[in-house]
């Protein structure tokens, strides 16, 4: 997942979920925030942010806010909500292309409808289908990655659909993409949404495979790197 025309700015404030005021070269500019989550622990006045210039010259917000340096520990965190899906697609596609087994034929698809939900990715083979739901993680506390940072009934619904995939004889994965490098443990954020945490436990018992991958993050790029421990 790569970006172009990235510049640095200083975060001022976030009037609503979709926009932020950022100081760029001494001027206050209204920019688009590519994450509608709360991100309160990240977007603190005075923190360093990174922005990608829009290719549309007529857009009211000329930049997208894509990454932030967390003031608490100087951790660079990608906070583009579209990045986890793109990075996961690239990662899985690379694994398929480098598998070395020419007899295997897989098709990687995005946004596949299953039941009442639209799951992020599906690997279709000759004899099996593997369904994957991707969740981006930007919340970190004391070296532990946590999800969600706000209650998510949609997330609970996706977990239930993954369980249905398993009951129907398919393989199903819930992939947490940790949008930073640093945490070595992932946990569900029970304090924020206990129902999601319970659903995650039930899904694991039902056979849904839960994995968490950290990322190498720079202002210009985010790439899935290593697996980290999942504690459910």
Write a structural description:
The protein has 232 residues and is of the alpha/beta class. It has 2 domains: 73 residues, OB fold (Dihydrolipoamide Acetyltransferase, E2P) (Beta Barrel), CATH 2.40.50; 148 residues, Trna Endonuclease, Chain: A, domain 1. Helix content is 19%, strand content 44%. It has 3 helices and 15 strands. Strands 7-8-9-12-14-15-13-11-10 form a 9-stranded mixed sheet. β8 and β9 form a beta hairpin. α2 packs parallel to α3. The radius of gyration is 18 Å and the shape is globular. The model has no long low-confidence stretch (mean pLDDT 94).
Short summary of the structure?
The protein is of the alpha/beta class. The protein is built from 3 helices and 15 strands.
Number of domains: 2
Rg (CA only)? 18 Å
Helical proportion? 10-25%
Strand-pairing-aware structural class: alpha/beta
CATH-scheme architecture of the largest domain: 3-Layer(aba) Sandwich
Keywords:
alpha/beta, OB fold (Dihydrolipoamide Acetyltransferase, E2P), 2 domains, 9-stranded mixed β-sheet, 5-stranded mixed β-barrel, 15 strands, globular
